[in-house]
Amino acid sequence: MLPALMVRFNLFESDDDSDAYNTGSEAESEESEHIYRESFPYLLEDEWFLKCFHVSRDIFKSLYDGIAPTLLSQYEATVYDRIAATLRYLATGTCTSDRGVGGYKAMPRAEFQAMFPQTLNAIRQLICNQHISLKPQNRDEQWEAMSYFRRILGPTPGVAFCAVGTHIPIAEPSEQKHLFYYKYGTYSLNALMIFDHRKRIRYVNASFCGAMHDSHLWNSSGVDSHFAQQHAKGNEKCNLLANSMFPSQPWIIKPKPGSVDPTFNARHERALATADTAVHLLKNRFKCLLGKPPIPYTPPECVAVIDVCCALHNMCLDENLPDIK
């Protein structure tokens, strides 16, 4: 795991703690508030935002309202332009090279490179704690998840989640390259993700180097302690599916080699495909994660990119936005 990453979020809780991700002053002047509110293009249609940024106008506006006070005057570009360029990069994997797509005009490269890290981290602080959490959103959620997985798995106790590792291609690091080497001359981060039955991301830790095997992701993440605590409390509704590379724990349901039930492994594979489908949806919406080209930033900055994409993925699911092909 990367030793010098930015602060990780407490992804086990979803309570809205404004102090945890307050990105601006609590006392903005009326004049400043008027300026940043007036600079948002209210007349643009929702379809335009979906086409250019793969998120809705409401999601864009929530980001704008959340970070505008602190980003108001630090760069020549407006707050709207900074968020637009950031989301355009996340959606397409490029920003400075596309011109006129859907009416969007790209930001000059030097300006984009200067503003991107701060804008991205402001968005990260605003949305990640709020939208990525293992804590149930309501009383019915775990029962719905259990019913979903029971229909596929049969009488397997208490399955509510799926866990997978997925590689995110990154540019060749300047230091410790061997830790990030994946295969065929490429470099990556190996991100541990936990999904629910609705394909929402309930946990993400993208701080693992690409050379780390899937078998080490779980033990190195620290997330096992959450499930161990739930198991100790007698909570039988938070088990999860994983592949055979994950460690053996009472709360981790893996394939069973040589099982007396010849259909169990096939059902397990179909149920775990929920996570594979979710990863596919995530990377299709935010094509910067596809590696064409690899994310051209330092590993810690790449972690921030992945975190923000995951939170935005959940926000898009909450709004029932159409999938991106």
Task: Offer a few descriptive terms.
325 residues, alpha/beta, 5-stranded mixed β-sheet, 11 helices, 45% helix, 12% strand, globular, nuclease, HARBI1-like, hydrolase activity
How many strand segments?
Answer: 7
How far apart, in Å, are the first and last alpha carbons? 32 Å
> Largest sheet, described in full?
5 strands, mixed
Strand percentage: 5-15%
Number of discrete domains: 2
Q: Strand order of the main beta sheet, please?
A: 5-4-3-6-7
Envelope shape: globular
Indicate the structural class: alpha/beta
Counting copies of identical and different chains, the oligomeric state is: single chain
Helix content: 40-55%
Radius of gyration: 21 Å
Number of helices: 11
Mean pLDDT: 85
pLDDT < 50 runs, ≥5 residues: 3-38
What is the helix/strand order? HHHHEEHHEHEEHHEEHH
